[in-house]
Amino acid sequence: MTSASDAPDRGFRLSQLIYDTRYRSLTIQVITLIVVMGAAGWLVDNTIQNLRVLGKDFNFGFLDNRAGYDIAQHLIPYTNDNTHARAMLVGLLNTIWVSLLGCATATVIGIFVGVLRLSKNWLVARLMTVYVETFRNVPVLLWILVAMAVLTEITPAPNAYKVNPATGEANASMILDSIALTNRYTAIPAVSFERSLGVIDTALAPVSLNVLAIVLVLAGAIWVNRRLLAHASAVQDATGARPVTWWKSLLLLLGPLALLLAALGFQLHGPTLKGFNFTGGTNVSNAFVALWAGLSLYTGAFIAEIVRAGILAISKGQTEAAFALGLRPGKTMRLVILPQALRVIVPPLISQFLNLTKNSSLAIAVGYMDLRGTLGGITLNQTGRELEAILLMMLIYLAISLVISGVMNLYNHKVRLKER
Amino acid sequence: MKKSVFFGTLMAAGLTAGIASATTLEDVKARGVLNCGVNTGLVGFAAPDANGNWSGFDVALCKAVAAAVLGDPTKVKYVPTTGQTRFTALTSGEVDMLARNSTWTFSRDTDLKMDFAGVNYYDGQGFMVRKDSGITSAKELDGASVCIQTGTTTEMNLADYFKANNMTYQPIAVDSNAEGEQQYLAGACDAYTTDASGLAATRAAYADPENHVILPEIISKEPLGPAVRHGDNQWGDIVRWTLFALIAAEEYGITSANIDELAKGTENPEINRILGVDGDLGPMTGLEKDWAVKAIKAGGNYGEIFAATIGESTPIGLARGLNAQWTQGGLMYAPPFR
Predict the structure, then answer these.
(1) Nearest 10 degrees: CA dihedral of A399, A401, A404, A408?
(2) How do the domains of chain B map onto residue ranges?
(3) Which pTM was predicted?
């Protein structure tokens, strides 16, 4: 009598590909691969076919042509004689600028609101709940438009600041004689220096040596200050008494900077109304402020929930232990709870930063010229290179997102639980 | 292995794809409806009323083409397009023709793969400002904030004009005429610039048109006309000659009032050929013999359409100017129907 478990060896049959568990997964993988490849191949082929029918070619030569249009907000020098590539760069920098500021503001808002929502103060906690629920549940585009509408409707036109010759006074007056809120922009004082150390002309943008010097001095001061604090901690560890450092820190941080600014002849240049608009100062456009505010408040509401979840994830025993050691609630939060909560907070925070960056492409709704507005808007339209422009734009957003998640993953690595 | 599978499927897809697509005329006839790309809303040129019925100068051309091809001027689906989406809508096949005050330029005709079927309105770019600003010339706009529709030729003209006159400005980009109006009225820009006809139409829709002035400078040539996809010459011919039929009808005095009478036959052989009494002009391009009769009946001849939609008796109040017949000193000139 033969054992039932002995399978008769009848060689390989085709049906085994489906019914034999040894081969089935391989079969499914091969079929999936063929389907995916086929779909990709069909897409590429369809594109090539349609481009040929339309008589269009696929090349990025248009980037070297003269752009011919003006961009209201540019961080680097730009005129309409520059190339489309430069216009794209201007847009990209605008995207990065609003995303960076937006991420920073959203994080600050998020941490404050997230902590306050757990407050024992009934009113504060409820107010924060209302904020989170309203901002989280309305599309961000609407918040951007609301911010823009508020800015344009409640502020006066620049010519309201003009002095009326009949009455001798203007309809609107500037705040502190240096800031003017208008329905186009907020005019704020600009920084200027009497003496210049020179300018390095890079291909991207001219870099003022004055700014470079200020950054270097500031970085140096911060480094020395950290050494000072480390020394104070060492003394505290050795003797138990911490030396007084606050005035030394203050002197170290502000002293050299003040000296340098005085030497360079630092001054603030207030905006003045000339003709139609304010000149002389810096005009921060309402489109930028509206986009920034909309993105920050919207994403801030999400981050608040992430922070709250992170804090709630820390065992109550930690708080009780900190209280038992005599720490006040504020210090308990700052020294014990938040550092541990960061481990839970950081991974979802990365997604929120990515969301904010991608949502910044809604800028076109308020006329802020970001990457979508320049490369994906005017350039695309004037050159008729839809496919190239959109592909390039997708590639750039992908690259930005990968850089953000790369940097944030490094940070996550730093704060996560150290296992030994 | 992966590579060979990839190229294998690519080749198979290449062999199966490429089924010849029908011509636009066949598509439109089979569909029974003409897809016409129009402005999102510019009173006088193309705007829907409270009931969603579109009317206007550009809309009348859509109706004439639909009447010539399908025999019914109501068989039109109006697709509102912005300055940004219009050309993609046309080249991708979403619309059959574009009647949306689009300027005929070299690069649009060649690189953007469109064909302009003629000019239905000779226009130029102008500026509108508030009367109380005291500005009387575009040369006084140095330093002004200017609202501008993005994705249009006006954007480039504006940059060129200010550069040539050594002036600076702040461009405020808007996406549509409606947004431009709103920004201009809110005072977010000192001047609004677009085609002069568009400015007149926009101003006519204001509650206080007398408080806004259109500056005398016309800074560009803007021949506006209907556009079709490059490559389908038959369809291009149909749109082109429908427009010419409307223009010629005005020249020869064919109006919606007397067309039934004239279609029975007249002494004038040219009128007979246009109206299909003589010869086979319609069938030469794949249409019925009486195509032009239907087209002219849809909204009258060019002059009637002009007078009813944007002429001096309408709130928009545009004079014929360059758009008069060549016999009246204008530029409207239809080639012979023969």
Answers:
(1) -130
(2) 24-122+223-326, 125-220
(3) 0.80
